[in-house]
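S2.1 Query sequence (TonB-dependent receptor)
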Amino acid sequence: MNRPVPLHAIARAALMALALPLAHAEDVKLERIEVTGSSIKRIDGETALPVEVIKREDIAKSGVTTAAELLQKITSNVGGLTDGASVSDQMGGQRGFNGANLRGLGVSSTLVLLNGRRLANFASPGDNAGVDLNTIPAGAIQRVEVLKDGASAIYGTDAMGGVINFITRKDYQGADLNLYALDTQEGGAKKTTLTVSGGVGDLRKDGFNAFLNLDVQKLGELNATQRDFIREYNLPGRLPPQTSSNSFPANVDLTSSQLTALNNFVLANPNTALKGSNANGTWNPGGPNSGSRRVNFGKSACTGAPNPNSVVALGLGGREGCSYDYVAGSEIYPAADKASALGRVTFQVAPDHQLFAELLLTRAETDYAASPATARFRTASGITLPASLQAATGITTPVDFRFRLEDAGKRVSRVESEGSRLVAGAQGHFGEWDYDTALNFSRNQVTDTDLSGWVSFSKLEAGLKAGQYNPFQAPADRTAGQAFMNSIRLDGGSRRAEGRATSLDGKLTRALAELDGGDAMLALGAELRREEVAFRASDVLKANDITGDRSSSGALLSDTDHQRNVAGVYAEISAPFTKQWEGQFALRHDRYQGVSDARTGLTSPSLSTTNPKLGLSFRPSKSLLARASFGTGFRAPSVAELFLPLRSGITASFVRDPVSGEVAQMPVDRASNPDLKPEKSKQASVGVVFEPTREWSGSIDYWTIRKTDIISEIGEETIFTNPVYYNDPKIVARFSDGFVNYVNVKKENRGKLNTSGIDVALNWRGTATEIGRFAVSAAGTLVTEYKFATDPRSPLVDGLGKFKDDKAVQRWRHKVSVDWDRGPFGLTLSNTYLSGYRDQNVPGLAAPEWNDRDVEAYSLWDLTGSYKVSPQMRLRFGVLNVANTAPPFTNQARYFQVTWDPTYGDPRGRSYFLSFSYSMR
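Output structure tokens follow.
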């Protein structure tokens, strides 16, 4: 895996750069191949240097079956979106989205291509704009090319962090069948896959080729209760400040007069059944992380595991309240059904001309189950304790309380994502020119539906006022409570988003002149693209009446439709000045039409940009190549970032409000911003590739990226540590008593991000011996700098080797593989390693057992093997995560799975897989 093509095979060494050229069917001795990183066709082996190539055989050996799983093993992919992270309800409405994040620059800055052309972005609006990796037909992948350098000069926007090009099989004849099954040692997260491929026709002999690939996957859910490490990490015991104050029974935040009345009642009635923790039975509420007068009149039912409710003095329920472990009752890996169909037909209509068409259809259905919804009612609602509790406490006035809707059951949502892409075009050559042109129609539709566990807020409030439901005590028989919740259940709450991208692209290449090192080559290209985004919400969502899925500010959802046109032109020259020196020069100009919004009457500014890419390579000998490059990048704000439908939820992390002292996940409304400026970047790299012998090869590259005007929201940690923000009523809206009502944030140009690092690769392939052939492949990334601004007013902060903002940027990541092959047998032992880092601090605490700690390094070992039964049949088998290593413990509360980080941790543990493949050719 990750093997650069040997230097002795290089006809003209190319410098690192960017894009996809056409594959030319001309009958010549030297094959022209597709290359990610340049628009100029090149001879085989010429462009292996700038691109990390993962071949089909490497993918099969790894035991992974999806594009998202594969990219988790890429050392330059930092903080990508995974199925585990999607379980979180803090994803900005983008559950089901799997995204790549090269260099940690953001999912929106990594361009994902299929056969060199764009796909529609994941349609559901949110924090990230990018291609959903679920739309990549994993079973059809021939190889993956990862360009770890900015590519705006060739591809335009989205390519600031790099390009990942998934290249599928072409000109295939025969039929393949593959069956794959995986199970985990501790249960849950099963996976089965069926892939069928077939192709007919020889382009040279028959004048056509048709190829079809069908891929079906079924993934089982994984519950937190199925993993020992979740129980061992024990959220209430090890990290009580990250528990929830929304418990069942309800926690009540008493006024000072109510607390006085309660304790006076206890002293006057020493035989009362409801007593506090003091020796005389009075109540002593409070704690470092709870309200100073928080009590729970049903706390005797908060008995702890397996009950998610417990009394923990340092929890958010405090000494006299209950704290809730929301992790224990949730799924940590969702159930999903995924299917894709990819078909391609190519016609050799003349010796120098081809027509082709490619159709991709994908569907992914993923179910998410999280802990029950929460509700809070303040004294203004007028709700009082039930008569029995009034008689037992002496409290007769309205109360402020919060609780979890356990009688409604878990919150279950289903995300259905459907994608399609039709590409039709022609390629060939006329005269001195090669050409490639195509129409691209791409679409993604996402429907996010609330299935169960969701109830009407207005009917819940009315039922509480009427005494139809008692959240303050937990009876042994829950039938009546469950019946009430079922009577106010809401069905049909859904969000549907659709994104379309229609484009026409074309490129021309030719030789310009013969230089000392070979022909100087010219490429000219242009692209016209129309982007369309539509959002629809169901009536029940528009009514803002779903408990746990509503806006605290009262702002209502509305349907939206937005479009814009994009035009780009570019030129590229490759100039081999001598046998040793070659230069690459590229320039691209793009224009982005402003986006108009019918709701507000606003139109975002039109944008234009010109981005160069310069490169130079020097090969003093066949065994050594030096290279360097410089370029600029540009990313226009996405349509969703400019005019995003309102999204409501809670802060991703627990925060401490300095004004009220409350520690909680605060309600938050997230908005777009039509005045956003584009992100810009400058990037440079310098490196060497070496091959001292035929057995040894390697490379080392230093890279640096400077990004400005980052588009993001100001983080909640920044808001609640800066008085400029938490004292601004436009940002933090408060009740009259000073407690937070909701937080209002919007997309902003937050500031700068600077990152640098070193990529290394080393490969050895031994000669065949009596005991077989051995090979070793290693690739690693050392990040030497990662600094970013948390808001426009602040200086850069150091995020290297720390959990900051929304992710951890490890200093070192590597992937090492050792292969052994002998006859029909093959074994591969591989290790994926991520270094440790400084943990996120728990808000407002100084206890060393929680703060100022290090997260352990994460190292996974896989052992896979294969046996070729016959020329047509092969068996593959393996153990993934041989040591059954659990994700390391962390304080992070950005994602729903507190105590570990789902952006890189794999909760499945030791897994076993077996696959069978049969080929007829």
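Residues 16 and 50 are 4 Å apart (CA to CA). The chain has two domains: 7-227+334-372+409-455+490-920, 244-324+376-408.
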